[in-house]
Structure formats: C-alpha cells, structure tokens
Write a structure and sequence with these properties.
This protein is 36% helix and 16% strand. The chain is of the alpha/beta class and 515 residues long. It has two domains: 171 residues, 2-Layer Sandwich (Ribosomal Protein S5, domain 2), CATH 3.30.230; 242 residues, P-loop containing nucleotide triphosphate hydrolases (Rossmann fold).
Length: 515
C-alpha cells in the first residue's frame, strides 16, 4: 500500500515542500530510502523502527521503500522521522490516508517514540502559511518548536509529545491546539556604558555607530577599555522590530542555536567569535551550508576582538557581506543566500606590543614589524569601516571618579530618536544611514553648500576613494540626526572626516594617526 505524507525541509533559511512517499509491499523485509538522503536521513530507518515498536506498533515484515520527493535535492536532518513513521502506519493499515491528508508533519523520533525538536521550524511555518493550502492545513511539529512556529499566527498547530499520542489524535480525527508559552529572557547582563570611566570620545563614536548602524574599530593600547566599550554597544541599540525579530529567529532556528524555551529572539544579537574562527565559521558554509557568525549577527553586532589576530583571508571574507548585507554560498547543487546585515565592531592594538601612541609606554616594535602587523587589515576592508576611533589609556584618577557620563538608557533614547528621523527620511522601517545610497544623500540629504565644499576639498587632500567619500557623507548625516539637526553642516562633516583612517598608505589600511 502506498502512503504520501506532506513534510518540508530547509534550504538556506527558506523551506521547501517535501512529500514523503512510503510503499509497503510484499517481498523480503527491507528498508530502502531514496531521494538523495544524507546519512542522517538514512539512519531514520533505525530510529523509526525502534520508535514504532516502543510505541506499541508492529513493523511490517515487508519491503518498505521511502521516497523523498522532489528526488533531485539532497535531504539532510532528522525532520523526516515522524512523517516516515506515519507513512508506515498508513501503509500497514493502522491509519487511513484521510487522517493525514490535511497535515504537514516534521519531527525527530527518539527510540522511545518521543518527538524531539528540529531545525528551521519557523521557516517551515512561514512556507506553509504562504501556500494556497494553508487555511486547510495543520502543522504537526515537536512541542519544543511550538513557540517559534507560533510567531506565524495564521497557522493551526499540533504538538504531540510522542508518536503514540499523535496516532491516537489522528484516529479520533482531533488535533488539539497546543498552549503557547514563552519564557521571557531577563536582561540580566548588567552592562552599561556608565561602567566605563572616561573615554568620552569613544562613547560619542559608539553612539554614532548605533544611530546609523555604522561599522566601528577601536584602536588603543591594552587595558584602555576597548572590549568594555564594544560589549556595551548592544545596550544603546534600539529594540528589534517585529519583522526583524522574525528574521533573526529564523536564522537562529536554521542554525540550531535558538533557545526553544524563549521561542523568539527578542534582543539584538551580539556575536563575538574567537580569532581562530575559520572562514566557513565566520561567513557560513560547509557541505550542507549553514549560517555563519555574520548571519547569526543579523540585525545585531558582530564583535571581532583582537582584530589583527584573525587571519587576513578570514577578514577579507567580510568585504562582500559588509557591502551587500547578505552572504551568497554557491555549491554545485544550489546557491544559497543568508542575510548578514550586521554592525561590525572591532578592537585592535596599534602594534604588536600594543603601545604605539601611548605616551606612558614607548613602543618597542621595529618599524618593519609594525608595518607587517598593520598590513593584516587591508585597505579595501579598512575603507568599509566607517569609524576608526583611537582609545587612549585611562588616567587612574578617572577610575575613582563618580561622574562616569551618560548611561546606556540616556544614549539609547537619543539613538532611537535618530533612527526615527531616518525611518521618516527613507520611508522604511529598517532604514538607516549606513545603507543609504550615497548619490541620493548628496541630493536629498540636507548637505549645505559649505559642507559640500569642505567634503570635496578634504576628499582630494586625503585621497579618499569614492566609497570613502560617500561613507563620510553617511556618517555626517548620522551625526546630524543624532544631534537633532535637519541640515548637514561643516561641523558634522569635519567630525565625520576625523573618523577616517589617515596618515598611512592604502596597503597598510590601518588606524588614524595618533595625536
């Protein structure tokens, strides 16, 4: 007898329909799974057989053929366990075909017949909701995936805890709606910009970076507070919008790092990979491509501490996602796109010993070693980072001072006001100056004629590239938004120019000359 169970699989961060066809025929007892299954799918026959037996059902002593259609796309993961088990039960007469015709089923089976979570449940739910059969369909999925799938409010869900429970529901023709409970993730990190003594210039630069979603690199000697500052950048970013939260949750779900109890990502991601991270780990990849750190930082912050300790080849892989906002991973079978619209924050020492520009500790590095060290950050990549900020050592007297400047909440209020001005200007909910077309800003960005002359003159004297010219303009527009100005004047342009790397050639592509 032939059974067909609707299911789905994830490719990139999107889902596609899969039909699990199960044929239970006379012949020597055997399992055969076809349709380009990966090893994790081939192993399903052992899990499904044990789950059926432990749930009280007999595994038919017949030839069982499972086809995963479409058969020309490689199938990976464990989400086909549950539809395979239902197909065997329909093929052996335990269930009728009508009982499962309006269900889309995903789930991993334990040997005890329990139903375990799978990756990409939110992507599958979005796919089903967009299909013409959505109104007449029920998504059957593991209980641990209910919270994320429930973000798609138009779907009917069913979340049995075991295979036996699901079969009982299908035999009765009733699929009860699950209770959706989400654990609120407390904001217990206690990080605040007021923790950082001094460094008002760096705090100002962080506020600009947050207001316009600009990349920033903090350069200074060890112990100056670069890492402290960068780790507090998320505390001054505006909250995720609903649309952004769904996008971030989908990426984390596909990557398998989503907290099932929370169900959705409610805070902007902050990813801080170690400098030993590979290129595939940073931008994504693998034989079955998965999102990398740049995609896990989507709509959040990617923090690279000790920037120049990363291999140059790894850093160069950032150029395309920083420019485009996504990563394209090409394989023979398919070309996948992962979103990667992140704000880059980085921290680095100015030289191998770390004390170049420190008046209290003279640098002991040979000039050749300094040039080699700084050359790890190429000119094209440095050109894509909007804010290069020198972080000087903090005087010990400031550490005991009570007045530590504005706290994160105060700065976040100003950042949110600046983002509101950008949304109104570009008429888009996720708009920010860092992604604004440079030519459009020249015409419609409120640039005063005197500011234009200063920018043009400075661009010629500093030998700015066309990309750097427009990036300065974007930063100046953000400074004006942060300060509540409708026009971009010479003061904003001058401040923006101060954040460009200067005093070095394009090949070195490094930090600003230290005053």
């Amino acid at each position: 007898m032939l059974a067909a169970i609707r299911s789905a699989a994830v490719l990139g961060i999107d889902a596609y329909d899969v039909t699990v066809e199960v044929d239970v025929a006379y012949g020597l007892p055997n399992w055969l799974i076809v349709g380009l299954p990966a090893n994790s799918v081939k192993e399903s026959r052992e899990r499904v057989s044990a789950a059926l037996i432990n749930a009280g059902f007999a595994v038919p002593s017949r030839r069982i053929t499972v086809n995963l259609a479409p058969a020309d796309i490689k199938k990976d993961g464990t989400a086909f366990d549950l539809p395979m088990a239902l197909g065997v039960l329909v093929g052996s007469g335990v269930l009728t075909p009508e009982a499962v015709q309006h269900c889309l089923v995903v789930g991993e089976l334990g040997l005890d017949a329990s139903i375990r979570p799978v990756r990409g449940a939110l992507s599958i739910a979005r796919r089903l909701a967009a299909s013409p059969r959505a109104s007449a369909s029920t998504l059957v999925l593991p209980p641990a995936n209910v919270a994320e799938a429930a973000l798609v409010t138009s779907l009917r869900l069913a979340a049995p805890t075991s295979l036996g429970e699901l079969v009982e529901w299908l035999q009765r023709g009733v699929l009860p709606e699950p209770q959706v409970t989400r654990r609120i993730v407390p904001n217990d990190d206690l990080l605040d910009l007021s923790d950082v003594a001094g460094q008002e210039g760096a705090k100002r630069a962080l506020a600009i970076a947050a207001a316009g979603s600009h990349g920033i690199v903090l350069v200074g000697p060890p112990g100056a507070g670069k890492t402290m500052l960068a780790r507090r950048l998320p505390t001054i970013l505006p909250a995720l919008t609903d649309a952004e939260a769904i996008e971030v949750t989908a990426v984390h779900s596909v990557a398998g790092v989503l907290d099932p109890a929370a169900g959705a990502v409610t805070r902007r991601p902050f990813r801080a990979p170690h400098h030993s991270t590979s290129t595939a780990g940073l931008v994504g990849g693998g034989s079955t491509p998965r999102p990398g750190e740049v995609s896990l930082a989507h709509h959040g912050v990617l923090f690279l501490d000790e920037l120049l300790e990363f291999p140059r080849s790894v850093l160069e892989s950032l150029r395309q996602p920083m420019e485009n906002g996504y990563v394209t991973i090409a394989r023979v079978a398919a070309s996948l796109r992962f979103p990667a619209r992140f704000a880059l924050a980085a921290a680095m020492n100015p030289c191998p010993c770390g004390h170049a520009g420190d008046p209290n500790h003279p640098c002991i590095c040979p000039i050749a070693d300094v040039a080699k060290y700084r050359a790890r950050l190429s000119g094209p990549l440095a050109d894509r980072i909007d804010l290069h900020v020198h972080v000087p050592p903090v005087a010990l007297a400031l550490l005991a001072a009570r007045d530590t400047g504005a706290d994160s909440a105060t700065i976040r209020t100003r950042v949110e006001a600046a983002r509101a001005r950008q949304r109104a200007r570009y008429a888009k909910d996720d708009a920010c100056n860092a992604r604004a077309p440079g030519r459009w800003l020249e015409t419609h960005g409120g640039l005063e004629s005197s500011a234009r002359q200063l920018l043009t003159s400075a661009g010629e004297n500093l030998h700015l590239s066309a990309r750097a010219f427009h990036r300065v303009l974007r930063v100046a527009r953000t400074i004006a938004d942060l300060d509540g100005e409708t026009r971009v004047g010479t003061l904003q342009v001058a401040e923006a120019l101060g954040y460009r790397p200067r005093g070095v050639n394009a090949e070195a592509g490094v930090t600003r000359a230290f005053a």
